[in-house]
Amino acid sequence: MIEPFKGKIYDPCCGSGGMFVQSLKFIDSHKGNRKDISIYGQEYTNTTYKLAKMNLAVRGISGNLGEVAGDSFFKDQHPDLKADFIMANPPFNQKQWRGDSELVDDGRWAGFDVPPTGNANYAWIMHMISKLSENGTAGFVLANGSMSSNTGGEGAIRQKIIEQDLVDCMIALPGQLFYTTQIPVCLWFITKNKKEDTERGYRNRQGETLFIDAREIGSMISRINKELTTDDIADIARTYHAWRGERKDADGNELDSYEDVAGYSKSASLDDIKANDFVLTPGRYVGAAEIEDDGIPFEVKMKELSQTLYSQMEQAETLDKAIRQNLEVLGYVK
After folding, report:
1. Residue 252 or 213, more confident
2. Are residues 170 and 317 in the same domain?
3. Measured at the alpha carbon of residue 94, what is the angle toward residues 187 and 26, in degrees to the nearest 5?
4. Residue 238 burial by CB count (10 A; 0-12/13-18/19+): exposed, middle or buried?
5. Mean pLDDT for the chain overall
6. Residues 6+ apart with CB under 8 A from 59
């Protein structure tokens, strides 16, 4: 969706480097130039940090993952970085990530509020906002609670993020996508600049946010896991690109003009979001999907339903009598 063709790519919790590998695959599949991007990342766990460096090395990818493994909050190894693209899958609802007196005056919270100690979701969001370049875009995965939580002042932080017009798109994903957790998740897309960009083909989106409800999309591949197909992902991406005003996708295919689709997508204003108490859950905005008319007149349908209901009520009376008789035979008289 964010199409990282050129510039600096950053992942503050890069794990074994999967996001970087996918970025390079995207560039290769669209005939881009690997030399047009530079990679920055950080990973807390020492073993995973080594795996990430190995993952990049065996693919011939150069990247700056810091000198050592380190916590992005307490040992930020890219303090002056301003990235053009940020992609991340932070730990969901990370608890006790800082002490009560630690990082209280950190510059990354400037313009917002200090994030709560009991959940790092908004600390990750503000960390990534602080790392964005003037025209940068971030896309990241978070637990669904991040869209509506008010615990520990998270609602106030979210309100300031919205009022600063940083939220470009919100996507609610279907459940059962992960093998390791059943927690339903969402995608956040944050951008520093919603103004018209003729070079990239973006229209002026100031004061607007796109909401996509993709919870009903996907196919079950097992009893407990669902998968988004390539076409599913492409449809979601095309919706986003068309909303931004782009005429063609990364493959050069023409895009249809964006239109709201009931039950699926909605371009909402800041006033709409304010009216919904600054909650970013797409289901609040997209409405209900239109039900396809089956062509049967209401009078005919109502008559058929009424006849079915009367028949079922008569059957219920007959069954009630039979049950009473059986109870009386057994000696249970009213």
Report:
1. 213
2. no
3. 35
4. middle
5. 92
6. 21, 24
pLDDT: which is higher, 300 or 255: 255
**Same domain flag for 227 and 322:** no
Q: Which whole number is the average pLDDT over 115-135?
A: 96
Cβ neighbour number for residue 1 with a 10 Å cutoff: 18
Are 77 and 168 within one domain? yes
Q: Report the pLDDT value the prediction gives residue 290, as an integer from 0 to 100.
A: 62
Contact 36, 3 (CB under 8 A): no
Q: Inform me whether the pLDDT recorded for 334 exceeds 80.
A: no
Range of the domain at 33: 7-286
Q: Are 244 and 115 contained in the same domain?
A: yes
Same domain, 253 and 323: no
Q: Is residue 1 part of a domain?
A: no
Phi, psi of 183 (to 5 degrees): -60, 125
